[in-house]
Amino acid sequence: MRRIAIYGKGGIGKSTTSANITAALTDKGMRVLQIGCDPKSDSTRLLLNGKRQTTVLDAMRTGDAIELSDVIHEGYGGCFCVECGGPRPGTGCAGRGIIAAFEFLESKNVVNELKPDVIIYDVLGDVVCGGFAMPIRNGYAKDVFVVTSGEMMSLYAANNIAEAVKDFSDSGYARFSGLIQNSRNVKDEDSLIDDAASEIGTDVIFRLRRDPIVQTCEGNDNTVVEGAPESDMASEYRRLAEVMLSRSDDVEGGMRL
């Protein structure tokens, strides 16, 4: 089973990228579980055609006994979608919410129940606190990719994530597997990201160009892979999915390594 974490600054397009990768892998016949680790709970929206699903934390707050079927929904092509959720605005800690959600999924043996070929963790990367670092610090993810643009704050977040991965790599958990450029048409964007990759000690594994078809499909509540399957952009997402598979490894175990 591949265990892939996709990090990125809020608003950089990591959830759109994650959903399109999940759709592309699903089209290859793979069983994919995408876990949204962002309190906005919008990671899987495009895979569910705009439907907002019950998050793990929302279900836990009811106080009722909950099962996997209460929080796992089938999305595009039969992929599995989970949203960790977050605390009510102004209360609690979003990072702690991720920890609680992971503990619940583990307690229900989600891997044995769903038997995914790939788990994709879509993780907010503005602040790599203990909760948001869960996929990389507790052995949940093996390969970490970061979505970035040439914008300063996006590159700053990428560097922070790389530092966090480095701290935990000695434990045999995650490894930094490369940057994904989600182009914003920033001046000298390619060279800015190449320089950042060199500083971090990694590679730019793929450059996604800016294409209005992405926003068009988002407006229609679907991925580009589903909504415009013959487009050049859909082909790019499929190629990116192949590159990510080639740069990741199968690892045995349950949810953790």
Largest sheet: 8 strands, mixed
Rg result: 17 Å
DSSP strand content: 15-25%
| Uncertain residue ranges | none
Number of helices: 11
Distance between the termini: 10 Å
The strand line-up of the biggest sheet is: 3-4-2-5-1-6-7-8
How confident is the prediction overall: mean pLDDT? 93
Question: Residue share in helices?
Answer: 40-55%
Structural class assignment: alpha/beta
Gross morphology is globular
List the helices and strands and how they pair.
Elements: E1 2-8, H1 14-27, E2 32-37, H2 56-61, H3 68-71, E3 73-74, E4 80-83, H4 94-107, H5 110-114, E5 118-124, H6 134-137, E6 143-148, H7 152-169, E7 175-182, H8 189-200, E8 204-208, H9 212-219, H10 224-227, H11 232-246
Parallel strand pairs: 1-5, 1-6, 2-4, 2-5, 6-7, 7-8
Antiparallel strand pairs: 3-4
Helix pairs in contact: 1-11
Structure description:
This protein is an alpha/beta fold. It has an eight-stranded mixed β-sheet, sandwiched between helices. Helix 1 packs across helix 11. The radius of gyration is 17 Å and the shape is globular. The termini are close together. The model has no long low-confidence stretch (mean pLDDT 93).
